[in-house]
Amino acid sequence: MENQKQNITIIIPVINEEKIIKNILNYLLKYPSIEAIFVDGGSQDNTIDIIKKSGLKLICSPILCRSSQMNLGAKEAKGDILLFLHGDTFLPENFPQIIIKTIEKKDFVAGAFQLKIDSPKKVFRWLECLVKWRSHFFALPYGDQGIFLTKQQFEMVNGFEDLVIMEDFALMKKLKKIGKIYLTSEAVTTSARRWEKLGILKTTMINQIMIIGYYLGIENQKLANIYRKIKSVK
Q1: How many structural domains is the chain composed of?
Q2: Full-model pTM
Q3: 185-188 contacts: CB < 8 A, separation 24 or more?
């Protein structure tokens, strides 16, 4: 490949992110050779206008559902490599080289980064270690770690399942059956906002309840309803 960087497409699902979207836009504009696709799920604030003004690609999804948004972005992607990223997560500066190097590893089927949380609080260092342990031991990185794989592999497993929650978890479960999931030594940096909003213990508890519910076979929409109900409890 003459320029491997051009083969990467970053796909970012968004909804009502006007307060933070400029940060990731400014970051991605530093990489003009990397295709970035924002897939909006029907924002009612200025998210769409802000993305349009940046000149980066925007797709408006008819469905507000992260799995549907990411599948739509993947369908429109020109790159041979897909990187699914959250709108409040930042990649290491040399991420194109990291991704290319990881994809070349034996039996590679998917990869993700270590997780760094953007907060000086010591409790987040404990949480980062917990995420690292889970990702390595179970080979189950989550979406906030920047999941990447080739478009061919993504299409081979029919992309994300039509789920309203746990879509990243389900994708990793499918991919583990056909190859190896690698975790890079470098980290993405994600916002601490969701942990700070709900509290670390509550957020961690919710995540574990969702995993247990997934394994118990609870219908996905019911699981999403449980998720929203627990989040709303103060």
Answers
A1: 1
A2: 0.92
A3: 185/114, 186/92, 186/94, 186/95, 186/98, 186/113, 186/114, 187/92, 187/113, 187/114, 187/115, 187/116, 188/85, 188/89, 188/90, 188/91, 188/92, 188/113, 188/114, 188/115, 188/116, 188/144, 188/145, 188/146
